[in-house]
Each structure stands twice: as C-alpha cells, then as structure tokens.
Design brief:
Largest sheet: 7 strands, mixed
Radius of gyration: 18 Å
Order of helices and strands: HEEEEEEEEEEEEEEEEEEE
Strand order of the largest sheet: 2-5-8-13-16-18-19
Helix content: 10-25%
CATH topology: UDP N-Acetylglucosamine Acyltransferase, domain 1
CATH class: Mainly Beta
CATH superfamily: Hexapeptide repeat proteins
CATH architecture: 3 Solenoid
Number of strands: 19
Number of helices: 1
Number of domains: 1
Length: 170
C-alpha cells in the first residue's frame, strides 16, 4: 500500500516539474495560450525561433530543435503525437565522422494548419508539411509534403490524396 502511495506522489511531482519547464518554454518561445503539452518529457531547444499555433498539441517524449538563424513554425489545429522529432539541423550521412569536419544539413521547418503527425515520426531540416496533410506513424520525412495528402513510410512517400467532401451549399 505504501509503495502505491509513494508511486502516485512521484508521478505527480514529475508532472509538476514538467509544468514548470513548459511554463519556461512559453516565456522563451512564441507559444499560443491554447497550445497543449500532452504529457511529460517534451523538449524544445536551440537558439532559433519556435512558434506553436492555437489549438495545437504535441505528445509526450517529443522534441523540437531550432538552430541559430532557423525556425520551426507549427500552425493552428495541429495534432503531433508522441515521440515526434523535428530538427532544423542534422549531420549529413556522407560526412567523414572520424577526420571531420562534419557536414550538416539545415533549414527551417514549417508545419501548416490542421496537420496530423503520427507517433515516432522524424521530420528532417527544411521540410514543409502542407495544410491539412497527414504523416503516418513511424515515418521519416525528408522532403516537403503538399497540402491535403497522406504520407508514410521510410523514407516517407505519398500514400494517397485526401478525399475531401465539401458540404452542399458551400
């Protein structure tokens, strides 16, 4: 019984600590008041800009890196699941990691309004996800995704275009 109570206290303390971290993020970056941090372990870092839109959220264990002079912008009404990685800078695989210097790829990341990103997705530097697009779980996004398309896989590719139904009278 005592272990159960102690466990609950530890969990609540952990969540309280993350709330303090998230409050600091709101002061450091441009984060809409209605943006939600959905769980613990969400990391925002780097000297660049991070802008998180209204009525969007990011899931537990996700991270966003924004290098100096670069930015990550997430639009309104976006759903970003758990363990998503968004980077503006990364090493190039063809670099000589022993003798250096390491070559890097860099570019700002733009995520349009109404985008849905599944669990365990990696988004590479310089990628744009168009409005109302979907990226399936476990995808590696290395190039931009047009609006209203569903992408998935490693590397991510077009699975299909959305079947948009517009109500009568509009």
């Amino acid at each position: 019984m005592i272990w159960r109570i102690l466990s609950m206290v530890i969990v609540r303390f952990r969540l309280l600590c993350w709330r303090v971290v998230y409050r600091d993020y709101r002061h450091r970056y441009s984060i809409a008041p209605s943006f939600r941090f959905n769980g613990a372990g969400i990391s925002l870092y780097g000297d660049g800009g991070i802008e998180l839109g209204e009525h969007s959220y990011i899931g537990e264990g996700s991270s966003i890196e924004s290098g100096s002079g670069l930015s990550v912008k997430i639009g309104h009404h976006c759903r970003i699941s758990h363990n998503v990685r968004i980077y503006t800078t990364t090493a190039l695989a063809d670099s000589d990691f022993i003798n250096g210097p390491e070559q890097q790829s860099s570019g700002s990341v733009l995520i349009g309004d109404g985008v849905w990103i599944g669990t365990n997705v990696y988004i590479a530097p310089g990628v744009t996800l168009g409005t109302d697009s979907v990226v399936g779980a476990n995808a590696v996004v290395t190039r931009s995704v047009p609006a209203h398309e569903i992408w998935g896989g490693v590397p991510a590719r077009l699975l299909r275009r959305k079947n948009l139904r517009i109500p009568e009278g509009e």
